[in-house]
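Appendix B, record 7
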Amino acid sequence: MFFEVSKRQLITFLFLFFVLTFNALAANKIIGVRIWPAPESTRVVFDLSQKPKFSHFSLSNPQRLVIDFENSKSALTLSNVLKDDKRIKKIRLSTPKKKGSTRLVLDLNKNFQLAVFPLSPAGTYGHRLVIDLYDKAGATKVVKTSDNTKAKRDIVVAIVAGHGGEDPGSIGSKGTYEKKVTLSIAKRLATLINRKKGLKAVMIRKGDYYVTHNRKTELARKNKADLLISIHADAFTSSKPSGASVLVQSTRRANSEFTRWIANRQKESELLGGAGETIKKTKDKNLAITLADMKKEHTMGSSYAFAEHVIKQMKKVTKLHKTKPEGLSLAVLKSSDIPSVLIETGFISNPREERNLNSPAHQQKLANAIYTAVDNYFSKNSPDGTLYASMQLKRHQIRRGESLSVIAHRYNVSISSLKKVNNLRSNVVKIGQTLKIPRAD
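Structure tokens (predicted):
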């Protein structure tokens, strides 16, 4: 009899043990938290073992965001995770109303625009819950943008360092993050551009945070950019592919975006650039479409022409994967009013190129090549009213009785500088010949 009772007790005990163990295993574990501060927002990312079931609500006086994770357990260490974030005072655990749940509270400095959403596993990350806190309109510090209207203004180049923050981009076999490589190259390029009189660089991303594709073009447009350059590093499932390439907007994507813009031209006319106000005011739909189409075609042509300059310079410092600009449907290239290119600086999935992309010397070579392309392109295609336009070389067609010395005296330049800029080996010139005139000595 004693044996039978003990057996029942044992069975009961084992049953309860397995139930409790199963429930413990089934509970969603909150295993990590990451904070990504940016100039206009802060992103909080919670890492979880499973897809989260959650709810959230806000409280005021003081301002708080409360998140309840159903059927969950926390393994978080919340001390020192904020690193002086200006939007969040503290992240702490609190008592949930529902048994088996976990309640996390974000104590906030003020009321922010809010977005809360889950993310499925991707790359090195598993299940996540993302909280974005956005500064409300008018709450952010006013940033002085480029004065693109004054006489002899600077040419503005918007530089986008690909990926950032929660998005690492591609990851090399040695653990190299694309987001770090692109930011380093972008900073080097910006330094070169800002050293050149008549050029001005605008960094769309200055640190390790993510900027949405739409926001990238919004910031470029806000700064009245004449060109947008997006820096990336390619990757493939095989380690064999290598080389750099330059991408421009495909005709198919541009046309689809163009159709959407026309349909909403009253609302989004600023996307149509210089012709925007005319398009917005005109009541003639056909004229509006014609003006917008001309703008689009000019932008696409300019993008392709600049891309050719980049390829010409890039092949001097690295292997090319594509020898001509390639059209692709990419969101960052969608702007109809800003010539835009995406530069793949190499394959981070290729061990040799991963080493190169990590090398400061190679990064500088890539930045130098892109800068030279910018300088060369705008020397030949400078927008009206810019300092570059005023610095363009004059041209003179030789007439009867004129010699190289006469031309040199007329424009107050030396014969040697005339010969150098025109690649002349002798002092002989011919009637009808056109000479480029260098700036005065």
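Remarks on this record: The chain has twelve helices and 17 strands. The first helix runs from residue 2 to 26.
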